[in-house]
Predict the 3D structure of the following.
Amino acid sequence: MKFNCKLRIIVTAITMVTVFILSGTAFAEWTINVPGALGTNIVDSVATSKGMVAVGQDGKLYSMSTSSMSGTPNWELLISPVTDDFAGVAYDGSKYWAVSVTGKIITSTQGSVWKAVSVPTKLQSVIAENVVGIAAADGKAFIVTSAGGLLSTDGTDWKDYSSELKKASLASGNNIKGLKIFSNADSKWLAIFGHGGLCQFDLDGETLTTETTFSKLNDINDLVINAHNDWIIVGGAGGSGKIFAGTDFAKKDSLTAISVKDSSGEDYNPADILSVYYDSTEKAGFACGQAGLLLQIKNDGSSYSATYVPQTTTTENLNTVASADA
């Protein structure tokens, strides 16, 4: 992704989809381009070199081609094999995956035609309810429930990691909110997060390796870890948003608060932050949250900063942010 190009950013609201255009590098001009056109609550989105996919309630599924991303935005309502509310969507490097809150899984190569994935009967109960997230990489999808159900699949082979994940205190009380997949030269693992902290699940050893309760941020809504092992977590509680950065994921409670300023340089107290995207090459990214919150994130080479981006198009919650080359 090149930040000096014109980008499409999905930022989605509770009762309608609001798609914003980012022009230039200042992150200052956000404009609505399809107000109310999708007519559903979008819960998640993913952007790739193939285009963008957004999923929402009632099995609603939309895509935007790369040509539309760089020109006039045009969302296509797709034929969805499911009618339940979606929990998330992800891309594994070659195909898209999406899952409903009731464990219905679908997949697509290009993001336009989707087909159902049959879950083995003996595993259906693992993800039958309260699915909260999906992550994907290297041809596989990983699906998690709020209570610690965890499955992986490539569409043919399946693995059930639930008994190991449920050892985590985070899995008790339906506290899990989502997961992300990461890898480095030594291992591949899942970061599973929610109310109460974060746990790390080693996919090579198929074991729960660490669990961390953050003293500075107890309610995690999203996180990103970049190629240099820097990481950003966002969350909040009671309408007050928090954003923190760390420089070594192995030292998970060594967090530094990222100061949030308004356009005049004054301290700004954000609402709950729900989603974050960050490009480690460009050292810039975005976050969004409750009450129409938009933030620009930068790193000057020594520290992170976040700037509140005023916008008057919506005060609805903005649930997800995604970006890709256009």
In short: The longest helix spans residues 66-70. The mean pLDDT is 83. The CA atoms of residues 244 and 258 lie 5 Å apart. The radius of gyration is 19 Å.
